[in-house]
Amino acid sequence: MTEELTDLRVAVVGVGMMGADHVRRLQTRTAGARTVVVADAFPATAEKVAAAWPGVRVATDPLAAIADDEVDAVVIATPGNTHEELVSACLERGKPVLCEKPLTTDVESSLRLVEAERATGRRLIQVGFMRRFDPEYAALRSLVESDDLGRPLMMHCAHRNASVPPYFTSEMVVLDSLVHEVDCTRFLLGEEITAITVLHPRSRRDVPDGLSDPTFALLETESGALVDVEVNVATGLGYEVRTELVAERGTAMIGLEGGPVVARGGAGSASRGRSVPPSFKERFKAAYDLEFQAWADAARRGTATGPTAWDGYAATAVTTAGVEALRSGQRTEVRLAARS
Amino acid sequence: MTEELTDLRVAVVGVGMMGADHVRRLQTRTAGARTVVVADAFPATAEKVAAAWPGVRVATDPLAAIADDEVDAVVIATPGNTHEELVSACLERGKPVLCEKPLTTDVESSLRLVEAERATGRRLIQVGFMRRFDPEYAALRSLVESDDLGRPLMMHCAHRNASVPPYFTSEMVVLDSLVHEVDCTRFLLGEEITAITVLHPRSRRDVPDGLSDPTFALLETESGALVDVEVNVATGLGYEVRTELVAERGTAMIGLEGGPVVARGGAGSASRGRSVPPSFKERFKAAYDLEFQAWADAARRGTATGPTAWDGYAATAVTTAGVEALRSGQRTEVRLAARS
Amino acid sequence: MTEELTDLRVAVVGVGMMGADHVRRLQTRTAGARTVVVADAFPATAEKVAAAWPGVRVATDPLAAIADDEVDAVVIATPGNTHEELVSACLERGKPVLCEKPLTTDVESSLRLVEAERATGRRLIQVGFMRRFDPEYAALRSLVESDDLGRPLMMHCAHRNASVPPYFTSEMVVLDSLVHEVDCTRFLLGEEITAITVLHPRSRRDVPDGLSDPTFALLETESGALVDVEVNVATGLGYEVRTELVAERGTAMIGLEGGPVVARGGAGSASRGRSVPPSFKERFKAAYDLEFQAWADAARRGTATGPTAWDGYAATAVTTAGVEALRSGQRTEVRLAARS
Amino acid sequence: MTEELTDLRVAVVGVGMMGADHVRRLQTRTAGARTVVVADAFPATAEKVAAAWPGVRVATDPLAAIADDEVDAVVIATPGNTHEELVSACLERGKPVLCEKPLTTDVESSLRLVEAERATGRRLIQVGFMRRFDPEYAALRSLVESDDLGRPLMMHCAHRNASVPPYFTSEMVVLDSLVHEVDCTRFLLGEEITAITVLHPRSRRDVPDGLSDPTFALLETESGALVDVEVNVATGLGYEVRTELVAERGTAMIGLEGGPVVARGGAGSASRGRSVPPSFKERFKAAYDLEFQAWADAARRGTATGPTAWDGYAATAVTTAGVEALRSGQRTEVRLAARS
């Protein structure tokens, strides 16, 4: 039995709704990896998850889970403001880490992680931008890389959620929702975002105070491409994401799909069409599985793949500028550190 | 035999490519109307068109055609800088007129026509925004009017031409292409545009000097709706127009259609899809026919229907502001005259 | 004023729902033609239609309308069992006639009309298979003619109606509904049908006695192509027709289209799709207009275009065999007269 | 460490193209399972596969691999005529087995396996009809089960391959290609097939002797539903499967999908559409992964899931009748053993 066949032993730190789902994913959908330790700020939560999966222990605290000698790699699904400390602990011990987005909640700490990883001499951090593993997004990226349609000039993005919790604000739209379009833009076009403008049309009614919905953003990139983004977080409908690339020799759109095309009657009219998935979980189910498999494969080799710490830093830099743009109503430049 | 059954006798002024096609449309596709006189700045052009259709005479000049006693109504398809004089002549004689867009080339003259028509006490002017007669645009307008999807909040428009003549400039993109999206926005949303921003991403290469392509425009409306527009005039592909409405309770998209869905093989890959029509002529063939029939029906009753002189004026006001926005790179407000 | 510009003076015989709509179409949508006389088995019906349109007179009976000296051409929209007599009267007077389908209700009388027309030495009969004028069907026919996809091998057809009157029987499905797919097969493939099989799956419940719905038919053609047909006449939904050609080098499908793609919420789920038109009237509105314009253009030249008397005969021959196949449950050969 | 966490140790018997891919799938995409032994009729083939994956041994022969004490479960990907012996050996040792389709190549041996499994008192056999794990097919099955569209009445299936090897015959079309539609029909409608008719339209040219392509089949089910099937094995295009259910209260279609919708120019025309996947491997990539994960999950519990031995038997019974129908050109009844 050779070393490569040994399962990756994973600590999952933060086992709320998302983290608990990641435990399930590791145990039942990821080849060559299994959760051995879980930790959570609420011990009862950790106990409950551990009880559901034979062979999973509870660590006293997140840092103990990361330090555990029987842990080879770490998944972090705690709130963003804890990420710097936890990811740093992983780096110190040379353990590959899959950190849910955002990498951290401010530009400076993200950059510190970029530098701390570089100091280890290895790639250890993967940020949880799962869309990069979605077959449709991956196919669009391949199309751009193939240069088949020529240089990208514009991109149109729409991001629609059925609903948000009552405490959701317009800033959270930028930090939690728009951030996905920011990462997709960087991923699909393969370049940095240099400026952002955030505007609001009149809002739908019946949204929480502090929230104006939808949101319009305009992203500019290094090469001069323009990306317009619609973010709608309270449509009442379901979850839809759509991206259309406009390039020199053609266009390409993803996100029109779904399951069966059903024709049925209704109140006074008949229609033929597809169901809209209720949430990102259904839409990106396969992407999450692929993301974890790719991470586990890389972690077993002692490294990481997919979105880098720099990707996490750059996304935070753009959304930070986005919040400033939201407040000022003005085009705001994004200034990234030099990429040494 | 009653008066209503008498055919409308039409003068077509300007019989270049577009005007000649309008003559054909009147003779062969429009019930209750026929061309009796044509005029053109180039007499040989007028002679050639008249020779093709029995019963069509050539007038010595456009004003003579309009004044002709045997002419009941007028179609104007001359360059925009002649429109004020010609439309005014129609108004003076109380003759219904279908004037190709733009109504006139500047705001002041358009407003003078609005006032001159009002002074006649009748509706006589119809502006040639043919898209309003396209079944898809009409269905989207009906959907907005039904309030079925609630209040409009945003709209996404794309307008793509395969190619433009070598003398085409970025200002002409605003005046000749963007103007259609301006009118559609006003038509679909049923309100005025209050501000416009025009930006350029990096341009495709191999376009004429003075042209940057594509163009991005952002329109704001009275109610606070935001409309983003992509105009692409040299895609090398074909003609595509697409509009997606984002409203409080749903979205609606038009422009995805075409003819047969064909699957076939190709160089190394197979695909399944639809042909993109080569130009606006194929895409809006039915719309032009419907526009002319609606105009003829109204003109036989001594009046006009569809896009009004005010619609022509408002479109000119927005595109004039658009050219200013293009030059300044700044958001530019649109100031309309009071609508007395 | 030359002869060509004179409007075609039309008699419309049979002005029930369909015929009355044809009068409207002639008066308001057909260039160069106008109704001058109407006749109907119910004089009150004819009076009502005539009263709605200035300049339209009522004839004492259909034959009087056809014989009228001020009538140049005739539209027949009476029940099928009257067609032979009425079309014959048109042929005797050398008047172009647009006869609604079926040409006649039995093979022998249809063939007599084919021969009677041939004896006049002119093409005078056009049968009302309006689908041939639908832009989608026409585009599919053009594709077949272009040989771009190679030889046709199979075709899949679906024909779905929302509902039928309570007296509708399975035989009427063959005679009134399937007949359209029969004509489309002949039109699209450009060859005769040689055999027909008609089968029934279990029926939907809640249909009238004497009706089994849906119906499956299998058509075989001269060249050996196989065409399977689903006819559904009581779906409760709306009107859908779809045809997919399977050829040597590719496939082509028509009938997926509609208006705006609308996303909206609903009872527990959200969907994105298109409205299904309620009936053939909405689906083939443009086709009817194009059919009438083409007929009027030909009739003004003293002839006819589109579906011929032979097309009407061949369709009747196939549906007659179809009724036999329905009764026997067996594959039934279609035997056509020699085409002299 | 509890028992449940122990990886399932798998023998893969037959490691040609398909079996070797299954080894890769177990090693890199299936949680909780790993290949420990491979065997093949060609020892060099087995050696090559084993060399590629650390920890995989080569067994002297298939029966030795099945008997191996360190093997918990077996995947069989050898030719169909070996399946009875190999599956029987698995049953004798009480080992769960995933057997590629067909279960066996004749009705009698399939039935013997059904009975042999029953004698073990456990469910141990899963047949490799992977489509049942495809998200689209699964969604359509759920829709039928929900009764949302009412009782199924008809189904239309199309199955298109780009090409087949030169030795492919019309009988192999029935046994290797049509068998998938047979299983899908049984799966989607949840009932047995009672009769089959197989017909050929004229064939495309340039196909091997002994092959007529395409093939048309008509399946009848217990409830009286009719299923028409187009099988096209040499389209030169790519791989497409499509199924449309026609039910009492609506219709549902799967198989229209693909990746990005790309618009691009071409030789004289522009089109907008999707790529057709080159083969079943791309189309059913996710389905195979899901099939193996579901099998491994069940096998770790000592049982099986998905398509049963009876499903394998019933499919063989239908395709056996299909070959008879192909030869006779007649409707052929399918007679299944009593399901004790």
From TrEMBL, chains A, B, C, D:
Catalysed reaction equations from the record: myo-inositol + NAD(+) = scyllo-inosose + NADH + H(+)
Keyword match Oxidoreductase: yes
Domain Gfo/Idh/MocA-like oxidoreductase C-terminal: 141-332
Gene: iolG
Boundaries of every Gfo/Idh/MocA-like oxidoreductase N-terminal domain copy: 8-128
Function text: Involved in the oxidation of myo-inositol (MI) to 2-keto-myo-inositol (2KMI or 2-inosose).
Name of this chain's protein: Inositol 2-dehydrogenase
Alphabetic keyword roster: NAD, Oxidoreductase
EC number: 1.1.1.18
Domain of life: Bacteria
GO molecular function: inositol 2-dehydrogenase (NAD+) activity; nucleotide binding
Top-level enzyme category: oxidoreductase
InterPro entries cross-referenced by the UniProt entry: Gfo-Idh-MocA_inositol_DH, Gfo/Idh/MocA-like_OxRdtase_C, Gfo/Idh/MocA-like_OxRdtase_N, MI/DCI_dehydrogenase, NAD(P)-bd_dom_sf
Annotated family: Belongs to the Gfo/Idh/MocA family.
Taxonomic source organism: Quadrisphaera setariae
GO terms under biological process: inositol catabolic process
Complexes and interactors: Homotetramer.
